[in-house]
Amino acid sequence: MFKARLSVVCGRVQPRPAKSLVNAARTFTSSAPRSKQRLVILGSGWGGYEILRAIDKKRWNVTMVSPTNAFNFTPLLASCAVGTLEFRCAVEPVRRFSPQVACYQAWCDTIDFKQKTLKCMPATAPLEFEGSASAPLAGETTKETSYPPGTGNGFNLRYDKLVIAVGAYSQTFNVPGVKEHAHFLKDVRDARAIRTRIIDCFEQANQPVLSDVQRRNLLNFCIVGGGPTGVEFSAELHDLLHAEIERHYPSLARMAKITLYDVAPNILGSFDKSLGVYAENKFRRDGISIKTRHHVERVEKDRMFVKEQGEVPFGLLVWSTGLAPNPLIQSIDCLQKHDKTQSLFTDQNLNVITNEGHADPDVWAIGDAANIKGQLHPATAQVANQKGKYLAQKLNKIVKDQEHTKPFEFQNQGSLAYLGDWKAIYDRSSADTVKTKETGRVAWLLWRSAYFTMTLSIRNKILVPTYWFLNWIFGRDLTRF
Q1: pLDDT for 124
Q2: Of 33, 159, 189, 353, which shows the fewest CB atoms inside 10 Å?
Q3: What is the model's pLDDT at position 157?
């Protein structure tokens, strides 16, 4: 039997193990536990945020790098832009998962795949910038790249595993003046700027010093892009004009005009053709002008020039014409990319592919920044979300040293688009299971129920139907603040 000796520490008598006991302990103790692998997620969109939610944070050392500290629920942004919903209904905070996850509001500028390092630049505003920003007046705009400048103090991060989910930017097709004078609808800050702009247009048009021509120019709302984003914003704006605006600005509401432009022969080209025709017919009955096969040549302050129409004055221009590659993806030259979209090619397990044709086992790419080689999936939130769920399951098995070789398979759940007046379209003609199409009030119920169930937090599952009900009873709030 081992004997313990006594020692005096700070005036107290404490037992001290015998030398043989210490040696025995050193012999039988195991080595220090291996540190957790570092997983870095670039981007807090539909793919990156889904991984952040589902990843095993007890086994992974997780770091999130994103220029925003929230996830934007993009299908509800059009509703937020006209006051149907409040802005917090369309965001989920990234820091909900702190302190288990290290979060940096920053851009990733470059990736060194050999050294496994990232060079990042803070996206937070310098202290002297805070408090100086104010909501833009009519005649002023916010642009997609007008976020507060970073502090300029870059930093480096190391990773063991990396997920690239940086998304894409709005496509401008290099049309001069778009970034300076148009509004985009990519996140909640864009929705806030659009909402302020709409109210300012009506307040300025209400001034007695303006002529009717000036008022009509201010109240000409132009949307470029006939995809789901442009169509849904046009519908939400129509609802606003024919409800609250008609009540509070009756003389101005008759002067307001909504015009939807697209270079394609039809709007909603990704939907079944019959549904696109249904949407066009409804818009024309509602007084929304549709200008297909129209090309915008340049945009200036308060006016744009259309090849087929000439000069078009506007009070608000919303640009939603597709996706352009993220600058980070453009800077990568050691990985294979799609010739047209410049998105990263991945294999069926979502690993990026090097120029030599090998899959990098430590790097994955998902969302609008990536495409599976040999497959063509639409650049939608549905695809990004499913890839995020798949990759989270894969990473949770990898960290347990379990095999996960099942390839990613996209399950098409169909597409939805709101058309205004409690009507919508639902397209499952290309779905993997039951194929069907719906229009009108039934599709609207499906639209609302789908987005309600897709909201991620309990808070927003309460807020979204609450604001829908409150606005149905009391109307939208037109206060500018």
Answers
A1: 83
A2: 33
A3: 96
Tell me if residue 419 falls in helix, strand or coil.
Answer: strand
> Is residue 112 domain-shared with residue 204, that is, in the same domain?
no
Residues 223, 339 within the same domain:
no
**What's the residue count for the chain?**
481
In a domain, 210, yes or no: yes
Domain count, the chain: 2
Name the token pair of 113: 């795949």
Q: Which residue has the tokens 């009955």?
A: 285
- In 3D space, the residue among 24, 42, 9 whose CA is nearest the CA of residue 166 turns out to be 42
Tell me the pLDDT tens digit for each residue of 186-202.
Answer: 999 999 999 999 999 99
Backbone φ, ψ for residue 416 (5° rounding): -130, 150
Question: Would you state the structure tokens that stand for residue 156, as one six-digit string?
Answer: 């480096």
Q: CA 69, CA 94: separation in Å to the nearest integer?
A: 5
The first and second tokens of residue 393, run together, are: 């399951």
Shared domain check, 425 and 291: yes
Residues 134 and 44 in one domain: yes
**Domain-located, residue 13:** no
Residues 329 and 295 in one domain: no
**Nearest Cα residue to 221 out of 297, 315, 285:** 315
Q: Can you give the pLDDT at residue 428?
A: 86
Q: What is the pLDDT of residue 2?
A: 38
Residue 2 covered by a domain: no
pLDDT at 118: 96
Provide the domain limits for residue 267: 178-321+413-474
CATH number at residue 166: 3.50.50.100
* Pick from 65, 155, 169: nearest CA to 107: 65
CA 243 from chain center: how many Å?
A: 29
Quick count: other Cβ atoms within 10 Å of Cβ 331? 12
pLDDT of residue 432: 65
Helix (H) or strand (E) holding 462: helix 458-474
Q: Do 378 and 431 have their domain in common?
A: no
Q: How many helices (H) and strands (E) does the chain have?
A: 14, 26
Per the CB < 8 A criterion, the answer to whether 424 and 444 are in contact is yes
Low-confidence ranges of the chain (pLDDT < 70): 1-34, 126-152, 431-433, 480-481
| 340: three-class secondary structure by DSSP | coil
Residue-wise pLDDT tens digits, 424-473: 999 988 766 677 899 999 999 999 998 888 888 899 999 999 999 999 99
Determine contact, residues 37/163, Cβ cutoff 8 Å.
no
Question: Do 259 and 303 belong to one domain?
Answer: yes
Interacting residues of 365 by C-beta distance below 8 A, sequence separation 6+: 163, 164, 165, 344, 346, 350, 352
Helix or strand run (H / E) with residue 433 = none
